[in-house]
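Quick look at the format.
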Amino acid sequence: MTGSTAQGYAFDNASDQAGDHHDALGQLLNAQTRQFIGDLIDLPGTSCLEIGAGAGSIAVWLADQGAEVLATDIAPQHIPARRGLTVRRHDVVTDDPPGRFDLVHARLVLGHLPRREQALRRMIGALKRGGVLLTGDYMVAPGAFVADAPDRRTGELLSRYLPAHVRALSAHGNDPEWPHRAPAAFAAAGLTDVSFRLHGGSWRGGGAGCRLLLAGIPQLRGALLEHGLTEDDLTATTAALADPRLLLNGFLFVQTSGRSAEPADS
């Protein structure tokens, strides 16, 4: 989906950049996602729902741990076939929960959805009693975006790029403040044992974080141009993000978890 007036997820699984996008996200986020899931639930023998599964890297890992996994996406063509893994097209905003699960996981989903509260209710509705919901979303890290650049002009360009990137995503319905509000929203929806973790760090030019931004530029191009950048800016930004001399203050990945309340007599 492209254009700043479009509402919905900004990155299309059918795009030419989808493979690079999924690969970069896996390198950036899989280790901490697996760690948090492992701390929350003993996976063998459990049932898991992976929402917005993308290329299926976490869904495959869950199945490898001995869970029965249903992996869903509005465009599930990149999710591989696997023993213990069922793939289904499903829209968490409009479709009823596809069952009840011990774990419901959604990464980089809620922050992008204009109707995120409705999606959150459906996620919670997919939990068994005592089941765990875990979501994760990006937010901009505090401080300067550019930690080091090969020259002043590049630093100034990337400093202008970041707010345009945020506004471009917001035009598609992304809420950059959602990670701040998620714990309170989980508690208000009746989840217990709510907690969150943050992970961040530097992104080097040519590394996974900058490759994630590079994969997004063609899909956000129209909105980026509408929000103050020029074609020359985008060309220069593409070159800068591939330059290993560049060091950015990468986005913070915020994971929020909660547990469905047990029956009173449990």
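Next, a different chain entirely:
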Amino acid sequence: MVTKIQVEGNPAFARIPPWVQAKLRPIAIEKIQQVYDWIENECVPAERIYKAQLKEARWTTPAIVTELRKKAKAQGLFNLFLPNHFEESPGLTNLEYSCCAEIMGRVYWGAQTLNCHAPETGNIELLAKYCTPEQKKKWLHPLMNGDFSSAYSMTEPDRASSDATQVGIKMEITDKEVIINGRKLYGNCKYNDEMQIFILMGCSDPNNKNPWNRHTTLVVPANTPGLKQVRNLSIMGYDWAPEGHGEYIYENVRVPRENIILGPGRAFEIAQGRLGPGRIHHCMRLIGQAERAYELALVRCYEPRKKPRGKFIGEFDSNIERIAEMRMTIDAMRLVVLNAADTMDLQGNKAGRYAIAQSKIMVPNALLKVIDEAMQIYGGQGLTQHTPLPEIWTYARFVRVADGPDSAHRHQVGRDQMKTAQGFRERAEKYTARYKELCKKWNLEPEEFWGIV
């Protein structure tokens, strides 16, 4: 039995705040330790092996990942993300999983070795939450077992991606099948043979008076006739092989009606259920990416071969302050993410939407600056493949857009806060009334303040 005594002085728990440590159950402590050992001993040393194998077969999952996935599954490290209210869950809370996910994030593909990577996390949770037993047998269980991979297809090139009610790919639902026509962006590449299903959101009832009931979500097998990948979409110049991001055309793609999830017109209900934890999984992993950038910056600060004016660059005041700012920013953003995870555990995804949005907005923006400072410490070398910093920075920039752009989340937060304004006006009016009473008592002339007379 693992006890909390094992947490003290343990590097696996060094960055976890005391209030979170106090909430960790023995099963979580055990898994966090396992994940830490896994990433440190299996993934970080293999980064250059991964790159070398990827050069040989660009759109095939590197053999090192395939081998590690088998090993991780045997050790019970698969699917740790799935919240403990699902029967298929390994048992962790969102808060407990956050501690694991940060460690996984230290290597970009580290989560993949544990079947905890995007879009699998969101897709598996979606299927676990909304599918029938028969659908789970067909799609959920193979995904959880790592038999194949999946894609989530929602964004379109001809529509405003920040307003999902405009999703326009056409779905004609008949008694036996669904016929699909249109275009999509993103969704993992078909170039990788492991990618076998798309979870697709489309418009099946365009004339419905309620725009939130016009759309349907269903599963499309990747080899369905009429589904064509136009090209891989590079992200900031990277192709992100071996999974990548595709641009697709659906031309009279036909799938059985039983591939519909939950029912026609219920896509938004599904999307909101999927995006709660999924929105901050990226942020959890990004904390780990930022920690890696920070550590690389410290390594560079005391590189003996590079001492301008005979000093380590870590001895210059400007870099001492830079390191301090990086450290404090990462610690602050971790608290934001952990708070969101804890809020979801205590109050549910819907009640926690402010904390989720806060993470989604603040964390990528703040950590982009941290990673940028690490690149600056390395100088020109920091912009090259000599370090993982450029790819880490690009991932952070991508997270600002993934699962919705900053502005959409800020607008939602702002609208929710505006709904509280009248309550604060009423409180201010009570302050004013009481102030006037005090003026009479002390024989003073009332003055206008706060714009309230």
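The two ends are 65 Å apart (CA to CA).

See the schema section for token definitions.
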